[in-house]
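Researcher: I'd like a structural prediction for the single chain below. Treat it as a standalone chain; there are no partners to consider.
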Amino acid sequence: MRGLVALFLALAATPVAAQTPVVSEQPEAVSLTVYRGEKYGVQSIDPKWPTGYALVTETRTLTIPAGESVIRFEGVAEGMFPESAIVTGLPNGVKEKNRDARLLSPLGLVDAYLKRQVTITRTDRATGKTREYPAMITSAPGGAVILQTGDGYEALHCTGLPERMAFAQVPANLSAKPTLSVVTQSDKPVTAKVTLTYMAAGFDWEANYIAQVQDRGADGKGKVDLFAWLTLANGGNQSFNNANTMAIAGKPNRENRGPQVRPTGGGLALKCWPNQRTHEVPYNLGYIPASPPPPPAPAPAAYMDEEGDNIVVTAQRMRSESLASYSPVAVVVAEQENLGDLKLYRIPEPVTVNAKGQKQVAMLVKPGAAFTHHYSASVDNYGAQSEPMTLTLRGKNTTDKGLGLPMPQGQVMVFENSEYGPLLTGETTLKDRAVGEDVEMAVGTSVDVRMKVTPLSEKANNSRWEIKVTNARNTPVNIEVEIPYELRGKSKAVTKINGVPTWKTTVAGNDSATLSYDIKLERD
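Model: Treating it as a single chain, here is the predicted structure.
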């Protein structure tokens, strides 16, 4: 028993080898592969926190001492999935991984100093004299700061005097940047080139098409200049400079995971209500802005004044030599490649994807693609009252028709020429289209081409209906009307398109056309 006690005391007296910190502030090279979110195409990217994700690969050179070390990879993506992180290139691998989620920021400092003392400095506007006194942060609801001083409770920046709040020191558990730390062991000092690969939320991309109608004949045939932007979004606070950037079209199989904990941090929302009764405040006054900060002065380890947010969005260069087209000039075009059954779009040169920003690069440039114009409708959406039909552009995604490449889902803006220059005539959504498929774009409704559907009679096994289309234009128009029912009898005017019975005809200018059809009925 005495021997065991002696052994325990000896082990307790033995000093534990300290872990040597190694800090890597930023990567030397980075690759960014962005995957689309669940709502791609139907809705625009959420600028606050995009719903897609990215695979990030960083290369960093580290000087690792002998013994056990803690390596801090600073500046990783804010939405990192720490369980996905893979570190290669270390002499003896990774013993432990930790995600440092508490960020050094105004909100992070206030959160770390709850129920702790800070110093408030206020400046008298008349004399310029400053006064310092202690205060304690009692709460921070919604980014506001409630202080307790010798005079009672008050809100930060609501006294009407220029003031700032100072902290004695920066808490040790706050990081200035999102950080991944790993513990490793090395037999000797070594300089290693390390690769860090991980997945991260808060990214997205989408295709944005511009369709410029150039020629439109009386027979409905025409040419369209088709252009598409590849729009990348970064919702985090970390920029990716000179990144080799790619985007993936398609939907890889990915298991659902729990909500990702985003790092704490951000700015404060310091707003004050006027010192009046509610009925005395003008309706349009709103909140009184915080007072401007005093001139810079020596301060403790950390202090904060009023802060602002910056959003960086790249601009697009449009044609300046003529108003004949709204198709932008393609300086750099993403290159399309195959990735299994998915499609990969690689930007051929490094680009910077800014924090809280978007980057646009051309991904499709197809001038002079062949499209036909027709007016479409479905009998299910029409009644006995005459209503406008929808003008639709239809093309074939083949090389001989001017296309012939995969077209990811996205928003489409359609322009047509006029005596005032190109004007927007419609906005629609294009679904994913593979090579060989039809490409359809609904431009908008026309008051000149209208349709109504009227019931004529009903028998035991069928009902009879009539479609009437009127054309108030001076030129003929092509129409396609879907009749999604099982019809009785056959009509040369009705054919099947994608399995749906469809009436196709041409209506002369200032004329009308009618079709009667019978629907089979199932009786109990």
